[in-house]
C-alpha cells in the first residue's frame, strides 16, 4: 500500500468518526515550558521536547532556535501537510511541494515600543509544485486547504486567549 493510500484510509476513518461524533474532534493539548537562568527554554509536549533560546543581541546565547523559528516552521509545515491531505482526498498527486514564507516584523513591540499591536506586520506565502493542473484548479485546491489549516487559521485569525497568573 502506498503512503498516499494509507493516508487516505486514515483520513477516511477520522472523517467517519467525526461525522458520527462531532465531539470527538474536540481536544486539548498541554504544553509545559521551563526557563531558568538566562533565556534558554525547554518545552515539552507528550513525548517531544524542544529547546529555544534567543540571540545575544537581547541577552540569549543562541544555543537553540528562537520561538519564532518554531512558530514559522509550524505554519509552513502545516500548510504543506494539509494541502497534501486535501489533494490525496481529491485523488490529486501533487508530487513535491515547496513553500516559501516571508514575514515582516516590528521587533519594537516585544519591548512595548511603537504603535503596532502585533510584531507580525504581514506574511507572504509562496507555494510551488510541478503538478499538471490548470492554474485556477491549483489555486482553488490551495485556498480550499488553507481554509481548513489549523495553523494558517490561527496565524491569520484572532482567537480567544485566557491567561492565568499563579505563584509557585
How would you describe what is shown here?
This protein has 168 residues and is of the alpha+beta class. It has 4 helices and 5 strands. Strands 1-2-3 form a 3-stranded antiparallel sheet, with no helix packed on it. A hairpin with a 2-residue loop joins strand 2 and strand 3. Helix 2 (67-89) packs across helix 4 (150-156). The longest helix has 23 residues, at 67-89. The termini are far apart.
Helicity range: 25-40%
**Backbone structural class:** alpha+beta
Query: Which outline best applies?
Result: globular
Q: What spatial order of strands do you see in the largest sheet?
A: 1-2-3
* Sheet with the most strands, sense and barrel status: 3 strands, antiparallel
Low-pLDDT sequence parts: none
Taking the alpha carbons of the first and last residues, their distance comes to 52 Å
Rounded radius of gyration (Å): 19 Å
**Percent range for β-strand residues:** 15-25%
Order of helices and strands: HEEEHEEHH
Average pLDDT confidence is: 94
Q: What is the β-strand count? A: 5
Helix count from the secondary structure assignment: 4
